[in-house]
Amino acid sequence: MKRIGIISDTHLKEHYPKQFIQPVLTAFENVDLILHAGDVNALWVIEELEKLAPVYAVLGNTDNPKGLLDTPVSRRIKVEKCVIGLTHGDTFREPRIKPIPTAAGNMQTAANALSHFQFEDDVNCVIFGHSHFPLLLRHEFAGRKVLLLNPGSATQKRAAPHCGCAIITIDGSDLDAELISW
Fold it and tell me: Total domain count for the chain?
C-alpha cells in the first residue's frame, strides 16, 4: 500500500521565507510520494517537499520553465497497479475543450486536464490544479470511471471555500482519495 501526497498552486516565490505550510507537512507525514500539479513558482518548494518523500511536478501557467528545468507539462506516474495522470489544467497551452458540467468549480479545468490523457485507456486518476477549487469526482469517460482530483491551493484559496491538499491511498489496483482542508 502506498500513500501519496497531492499538492498544487503553492505560488510561493524565491524571495519568500523558506518555511512550508504546516498543514501540508502534517498531512504528508509518512507519504511514499508527493505529486505537485503546477504553479510551484520556487524551486525551494520542491526541495522542502523532497525532505518528506520523492516529488514529481508539472509546469503550471505561472511557472518559469527556466527555473524548473526538465519539468514537463504533463506526466504519467505508475504506482502499484494504478496509473496517475498529472497536469496543471490551464488553457494556455491547448485550445478550450468542452467543459465537464458535473465538476463544480472545475468544469473547464477538469476537461483540460482530462484531455492530456484522453487517448490513454489505462489512466485511473487525473490530478490537476489551476482553479484553486478542490474537487474529488469519479467521472465516466470512454466507458470507464476516472478519478478527477484537484487538491485546491495550499496557499491561496481565492474563490474556493478553503486552502487544501489531498492524500491518495493505492493498494494494488484500488485507489482511494481524500481532500484535506484548512
Answer: 1
Angstrom distance (rounded) from CA 108 to CA 102: 11
Q: What is the pLDDT of residues 11-34, one digit of tens each?
A: 998 888 888 889 999 999 999 999
C-alpha cell belonging to residue 73: 507539462
Percent share of the chain, pLDDT over 90: 69
Q: Is the pTM of this model over 0.85?
A: yes
Q: What is the β-pairing status of strands 82-87 and 125-127?
A: parallel
Of these ranges, 72-81, 90-99, 112-121, the one predicted with the greatest mean pLDDT is: 72-81
Q: Which domain holds residue 143?
A: 2-181
CATH number at residue 122: 3.60.21.10
Question: What dihedral angle (degrees, nearest 10) is formed by the CA atoms of 98, 101, 106, 111?
Answer: -30
Residue in this structure with the C-alpha cell 483540460, named with its chain if needed:
112
Beta 174-181 vs 33-36: how paired, if at all?
unpaired
Q: Quickly count helices (H) and strands (E) in the chain.
A: 3, 10
